Amino acid sequence: MFKLKHLSVTFTLLVGVTAEFVVLERRDNPPPGFSRLGPPAEDDILSLRLALPSRNILGLHDAVYEISTPGNIRYGQYLTRDEIAQFVAPAPETVSKVTSWLSNNNLTAVPITPASEWITVNMMVSQANALLAANFSTFRNDETNQTVLRTLSYSIPSTLKTSIDWVHPTTSFPEATGSIPPTFVNKTSAPIAGLLRVSRSFMEFRPLRPKKTANVFGVSGFDNASANKQDLQTFLQVYRPDMNPNTTFDSISVDGGVNNPAGADVFSAPEIQYAVGLTTGVQVTFILTGNLSNDLRTEMLDQATHLLSLENPPQTILNTAGFVESGLTPEIANSLCNVYAQLAARGVSYIVETGGFGAGVDCRSFDPPFPASCPFVTAVGATEFDNDEPAETAYIGSGGGFSNFFSRPRYQDTAVSAYLKATNNVHNTAFNVSGRAVPDVSAISSVPFIALQEIFDNSKSTAYSAAIFASIVSLLTNERISAGKSPLGFLNPLIYANPSAFSDVKTGSNTLQCGIPAFNATSGWDAVTGFGSPSYPKLKEILDKV
Ligand SMILES: *[C@@H]1O[C@H](CO)[C@@H](O)[C@H](O)[C@H]1NC(C)=O
Ligand SMILES: *[C@@H]1O[C@H](CO)[C@@H](O)[C@H](O)[C@H]1NC(C)=O
Ligand SMILES: *[C@@H]1O[C@H](CO)[C@@H](O)[C@H](O)[C@H]1NC(C)=O
Ligand SMILES: *[C@@H]1O[C@H](CO)[C@@H](O)[C@H](O)[C@H]1NC(C)=O
Ligand SMILES: *[C@@H]1O[C@H](CO)[C@@H](O)[C@H](O)[C@H]1NC(C)=O
Ligand SMILES: *[C@@H]1O[C@H](CO)[C@@H](O)[C@H](O)[C@H]1NC(C)=O
Ligand SMILES: *[C@@H]1O[C@H](CO)[C@@H](O)[C@H](O)[C@H]1NC(C)=O
Ligand SMILES: *[C@@H]1O[C@H](CO)[C@@H](O)[C@H](O)[C@H]1NC(C)=O
Ligand SMILES: *[C@@H]1O[C@H](CO)[C@@H](O)[C@H](O)[C@H]1NC(C)=O
């Protein structure tokens, strides 16, 4: 009797599940390197982020291209949060369906973007398992022993099928493989060579000084990254003796991030030091993102949505964190890219590195970097000096290639088609010729800096390249704002219309990580150095006219 009843209940439940729920995402196993330890406590709290479908995301993309293209009648007319909401807000019936589903379950959603296309809901594990037909478990990263709560599959009621795009974090694991690797750093006892190299490279724009603080330059730190102000002061004393060595940065906190100088390591030091040291007069703000979520994907999402919610986000943002595309799902890449598109619509220049993986992490696949591959950010690759000559050549580790997630934006059609045609790359069938191509530009990657009160030299990183390029952009933005003009916003349409503002890098190449040659630097745009190194005076001349 009991057995029969039990069976029949199970049967009804199974029918119910298949009839009323649709699976949104599933995977058979956790990724390699993760073990399932068991169920978490039923009352552990999960902070889930739900992506609701935007009304007209393509409309937003079109608007971003218009307001970012010099010569367009709308150039520089950035959108307000309300104007952006017209494109990205979910339809009212979507919002009411989702909120009543949640409130029927005694849950409250909090919007995390101004237009509410992202909402967050805190709930207990037991509630999440019931609500999403999920099985949240504790998984351990076997290398670091860190644990995370994830599920291998989750579903939503079929009545909400068109009302929820996806839920995070669920089936996406904080894999380390695929993250852009930390740069190697070498301490040196002889800083002089580095110093000379730097001053030669920066001679062109170093004397230019903004007269007043007109703009903010945001430098991103993730995973509790911190910077040491004493190292910064030493850097300024050594490399910018003309500046007040007390010049420093302020901060924005996301997910509980705090600057803890004792925990500062070598990774944020060069970015902060070049940002402050190159942009005299510009306010530098360290965007400190804490590690509450223990997952860089979540931190990047939280950072971007936080910036979007600010009344006045920094006009220039540097972000040197990222992944190769294979380390992400298309859902999270698309969602993040759409938040970057909204920042572009607000007039923010979001500048990222292409990472040190070359064309891919292994021998098998071309694997481009993200967020570089998002069409609404500016991706910076790396150069180095050619045998100590002033000429720059491509850095062999410079990330570059073609996206598998994002198709080629129109602004780069001419340049990229010409490259594909001229080089007739032997790997043409191994990478996605129709994808968004990176990088857009490049800059020198070998610069000395101070960390832990010592000079580090002979390290190369696209992060340093991106910091240098972003510094130039924030100086130009300062000049424009001081002259009563709009900030630069999304840069790529301007860049692709003005290749002559860059010093073309024509030598060198990048490789797949195992050493197989991948892309050559060539005359004109290429998939290792983009258009090459920026010239401040030429960019300034062009910008004076738009
Ligand atoms: C749910 O996960 C636990 C481990 O956390 C596992 O023991 C159990 O078999 C899973 N249940 C189902 C139905 O997959
Ligand atoms: C919601 O809360 C009310 C009052 O505490 C309770 O009676 C009801 O069972 C709860 N509903 C759910 C789905 O948890
Ligand atoms: C992980 O835990 C194991 C077993 O407790 C231990 O031997 C190992 O050193 C730990 N690894 C790390 C990176 O903490
Ligand atoms: C710097 O360190 C890396 C990694 O330890 C090493 O491969 C490289 O040869 C070093 N470079 C110099 C110039 O010392
Ligand atoms: C820098 O700060 C120190 C300590 O507050 C002060 O003594 C010094 O005068 C400052 N230097 C300049 C150039 O303002
Ligand atoms: C790391 O970040 C968390 C917030 O996520 C914060 O509470 C904590 O104090 C930080 N730890 C350190 C050592 O900075
Ligand atoms: C956050 O970072 C701090 C130090 O930076 C570390 O001690 C802590 O374990 C981290 N927390 C998580 C959840 O990873
Ligand atoms: C190539 O990129 C396009 C978008 O640009 C995408 O639709 C397609 O799936 C990609 N192909 C592969 C093999 O990844
Ligand atoms: C790169 O250039 C070299 C020398 O010109 C050439 O042999 C090689 O085929 C090129 N590689 C690719 C992938 O186009």
From TrEMBL:
Residues 1-19 form the signal peptide. Pfam families: Pro-kuma_activ. PROSITE patterns: SEDOLISIN (PS51695). Its cofactor is Ca(2+). It is found in: Secreted, Extracellular space. One of its GO terms (biological process) is proteolysis. Keywords: Calcium, Hydrolase, Metal-binding, Protease, Serine protease, Signal, Zymogen. One of its GO terms (cellular component) is extracellular region. One of its GO terms (molecular function) is serine-type endopeptidase activity. Residues 191-546 form the Peptidase S53 domain. This is Serine protease S53.
